[in-house]
Amino acid sequence: MKNALFTNRVGVLATMHQKERVIAPLLEQELGIKVVVPDNFDTDVFGTFTREIERPGDQLKAARLKAEKALLITGESLAFASEGTFSPHPVIPYIPCNREIVILLDKSNDLEIVGQELSTETNYNHQLVATVEEAYEFAQKVCFPEHALVVMSDSSTTDKSQILKGITEKEQFFEAVRFMLPKSTTGKVHVETDMRALYNPTRMKNIEKATLDLLRKLNQLCPQCSWPGFEVVDTKTGLPCALCNLPTQITRSLIYKCKKCNFNEERLFPDGLEKADPAQCMYCNP
Questions:
Q1: Are residues 115 and 132 part of one domain?
Q2: What are phi and psi of 208, to 5 degrees?
Q3: Which of 124, 149, 171, 222 is most exposed, with the fewest beta carbons within 10 Å of its own?
Q4: Is residue 165 scored above 70 in pLDDT?
Q5: Which residues form the domain of 272?
Q6: Average pLDDT of 247-272?
Q7: Which of 99, 16, 110, 17 lies closest to 59, judged by CA?
């Protein structure tokens, strides 16, 4: 059911990398809004994956700045923006993961809600190569040419002339490697996956999932005032062991809080379990 806060409004999507392909249909269908993308909107000023432009602050701040800029230049009151990061998985460090967020900023209702997706589904990778053959071996591992590549003279360069992006053809890739090799001081060039959404279908799917999470949170209404975005703000451990009944480190409850009226509620046993497996108990299984 569409929320009356958004129906028939214009939502500005701050992107230059075609994210509207997955974000706009979901927002328009579920919220009853019209999504528009500002002309010539340059999101590179908020940071690039190839590091020649540093991101201003953390992931959330960058997304918020994009949305605020979109509101400023359009004069609208409702904006959306997304931002992605790639890093080792927080629990399994040797596995790379992609964290995508999609933010909603509604100035008319003083509302900010963030959807997110943390996924190990990513082709994020890089390598130093000394030959075209080595480069192509790497390319085959990372879903090229469906996913684009970047070739750089050095991984730390900030010189745009030393960075070739959006490479989607085999010969184009070989030419880029040959072009950069003489410019390298080490005899090797840096190749990496192009993580911009329009060049990375796997990442685009994660942005879609983050958008769905945003919509899910919008549909979580406060039991007291019916305001959207009644979401988890804290987690409490202590689920009792099924054998000794002592508290474990397994989640026992989640704390939800309303952004508008500050009503909060504790919800027990979010995983549907009232007792923990003794194998997870530090006393029964030290």
A1: no
A2: -60, -40
A3: 171
A4: yes
A5: 231-280
A6: 96
A7: 99
